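Retry 2 of 3 after timeout on previous attempt. Resubmitting structure tokens to design endpoint.
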């Protein structure tokens, strides 16, 4: 094969490659979802993956805060065609890129068709540049959140051991499965008081899911309550970087290993993320 032929083949393969998309959500706020998203992304990046986070937590800008960064633009600017998606991407110091959130996301379904098409085209280009794209969703179920969740290849649901958090997480899983029964859902228990209690809570949660819902979910693991996580937030640095030997960082490594093992032989849902996003955004379908 000639050099030109090899280059053409590589170009064709790259043009068809697209990132795996994961929506990371929770039934209620305050469960550490954005902190999980950032640190899980860093662990994925440590395995030579190219990672992009979309901060879709409306109006909160949590990824900015966790990284101690200030940015001029947000995804809302890209959606309204004030800048391109590429211009909205911010590079962190940890091998993870991200797009900041913005309050304009509340009106995503009201954006005119022209801007939706431009955004969809820009998204197609961006997805070819990454291996994983993580959507840090806002808490609860909104119309905007739901179409990103349903369009994603997979969904992570973050909860804590508190009864209200478990109840809200169950509600989130139920809402997803009602709309997409084949959605691969993975659960993570954050701020577990100890390993034994955490496993019991997670196992009971899954028993309820399998008993009452027409579908299922798989547990990825638990992250223990860890004072160093709070310290890292105060320092505005990821805890897996600032405290790599702490309990939470070791637990995150186990969660990454569990994720890799559980997904290594599983094929993606039929239809690409881009096709589903076009269906939801451009064609304005429910």
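Retry 2 succeeded. Sequence:
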């Amino acid at each position: 094969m000639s050099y030109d032929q090899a280059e053409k083949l590589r170009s064709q393969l790259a043009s068809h490659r697209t990132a795996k998309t994961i929506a990371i959500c929770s039934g209620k706020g305050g469960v550490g979802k954005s902190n999980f998203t950032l640190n899980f992304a860093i662990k994925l990046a440590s395995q030579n993956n190219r990672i992009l986070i979309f901060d879709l937590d409306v109006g909160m800008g949590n990824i900015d805060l966790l990284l101690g960064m200030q940015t001029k633009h947000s995804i809302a600017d890209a959606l309204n065609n004030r800048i391109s998606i590429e211009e909205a991407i911010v590079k962190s110091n940890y091998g993870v890129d991200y797009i900041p959130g913005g309050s304009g996301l509340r009106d995503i379904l009201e954006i005119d068709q022209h801007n939706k098409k431009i955004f969809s085209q820009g998204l197609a280009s961006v997805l070819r540049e990454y291996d994983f794209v993580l959507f840090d969703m806002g808490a609860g179920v909104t119309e905007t959140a739901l179409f990103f969740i349903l369009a994603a290849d997979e969904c992570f649901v973050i909860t804590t051991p508190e009864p209200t958090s478990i109840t809200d997480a169950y509600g989130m899983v139920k809402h997803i499965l009602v709309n997409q029964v084949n959605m691969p859902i993975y659960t993570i228990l954050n701020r577990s008081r100890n390993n034994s209690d955490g496993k019991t809570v997670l196992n009971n949660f899954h028993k309820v899911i399998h008993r009452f819902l027409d579908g299922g979910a798989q547990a990825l693991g638990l992250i223990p309550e860890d004072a160093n996580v709070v310290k890292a937030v105060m320092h505005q640095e990821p805890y897996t970087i600032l405290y790599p030997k702490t309990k939470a960082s070791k637990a995150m490594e186990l969660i990454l290993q569990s994720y890799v093992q559980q997904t290594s032989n599983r094929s993606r849902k039929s239809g690409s993320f881009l096709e589903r996003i076009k269906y939801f955004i451009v064609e304005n379908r429910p």
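Attempt log closed. The two ends are 48 Å apart (CA to CA).
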